[in-house]
Write a structure and sequence with these properties.
Elements: H1 2-11, E1 14-16, E2 21-26, E3 29-36, E4 41-50, H2 57-71, E5 75-81, E6 84-90, H3 96-112, E7 116-118, E8 130-134, E9 137-141, H4 143-159, H5 165-188, H6 194-212, H7 217-249, H8 256-262, H9 269-302, E10 307-309
Antiparallel strand pairs: 1-2, 2-3, 3-4, 4-6, 4-7, 5-6, 8-9, 8-10
Helix pairs in contact: 1-3, 2-3, 5-6, 5-7, 6-7, 6-9, 7-8, 7-9
Length: about 300
């Protein structure tokens, strides 16, 4: 992200830290560059169309972009479709500002040398465009297209049923059972793995979303709380099965449920210390493995109704 900040300082772009977005004007073209940390990569977009009498210019632009992608290892993808240039660059840390500048200069320079002109890529008109964020996706478009998009978004939101918190919690609890099963299996193998906590988190969130009819911020926090509690339940279930296996091996006739009732009385200082240590390690692994997913879901939930002008 700091390399995008460096790029903005060099080029005079505006930086929106919360959206990991840089935007600026290059010879009349409204260029947007958004950093996607999950890949990591940069996504460059701007609207362009054939000017009057520029037959074949769009096809030549597509060919130029294909050559750009083929000739630069840091360019993952480059295309021109429906009045929109889209280019993705692999994040290369310190080289990012240089690579971004190289690509922007190349493509904008090419467009300036051809019968091509800026446009709103939604309607294709050569009119002034603004920068907008719609449900977390940053786009350039004219005010008229934004108004249409905003009205459509409002209609969709009004037609949606509200999230059912109670049903969602039931779904999260059901989903957590998968996480409990995975914890027990991995525990029996003698490991504590971060993937277990990640699976628990995902299953709780997806379970809530499935039965709750969607996901909101309250649902996300409820799902995370259930995931935390059910990880401890998974540890307890694994201990019960260990106790059952040990006693059965000595010939005792006992059920798993009887072991579950008897286990608290057997939690002496040494066993309790061991359990606390395993749980602490499990929660640390869970946090490390799940933090990126949680941030991604939280962002999606936070911007679900967003439709704002940035510039």
């Amino acid at each position: 992200m700091k390399w995008l900040k460096n790029f903005c300082g060099l080029r005079g772009y505006t930086l929106d830290k919360s959206r990991q977005l840089a935007y600026g004007n290059e010879s009349g073209f409204a260029v947007l560059i958004q950093y996607q940390a999950e890949q990591p990569q940069y996504r460059i977009t701007f609207g362009v169309r054939e000017a009057e009498g520029g037959v074949g210019a769009a096809e030549r632009l597509s060919e130029h972009l294909n050559a750009l992608a083929a000739g630069n290892t840091f360019v993952d993808f480059a295309s021109y479709k429906e009045n929109l240039v889209t280019i993705t660059l692999t994040g290369k840390a310190k080289k990012d500002p240089e690579n971004l500048g190289t690509v922007v200069d190349d493509v904008i320079g090419y467009c300036n040398g051809q019968p091509l002109e800026p446009c709103c890529h939604f309607c294709g008109e050569n009119v002034p465009v603004g920068v907008y964020s719609v449900r977390g996706q940053c786009l350039s478009m004219c005010p008229g297209c934004f108004e249409d998009l905003h009205n459509n978004l409002v209609a969709i939101q009004n037609g949606k049923k509200p999230v059912n918190l109670s049903a969602g919690i039931v779904g999260a609890l059901l989903g957590s059972l998968i996480g409990v099963a995975v914890w027990v299996i991995i525990y029996k193998l003698g490991y504590i793995a971060g993937i277990t906590g990640f699976i628990m988190t995902v299953c709780c969130v997806k379970g809530f979303e499935k039965l709750g009819g969607g996901l909101n911020r309250a649902g996300l926090w409820a799902s995370l709380l259930i995931a935390i509690v059910m990880l401890a339940v998974g540890e307890y279930a694994a201990l019960c099965l260990d106790l059952y296996s040990a006693l059965s091996g000595y010939g005792y006739e006992i059920t798993v449920f009887e072991c579950a009732r008897a286990l608290p009385a057997m939690m002496d200082g040494e066993l309790m210390t061991s359990v606390i240590g395993e749980l602490a390690m499990g929660y640390v692994f869970m946090a490390v493995a799940s933090i990126s997913y949680i941030k991604q879901v939280n962002r999606a939930v936070s911007v679900e109704k967003e439709a704002v002008r940035l510039a």
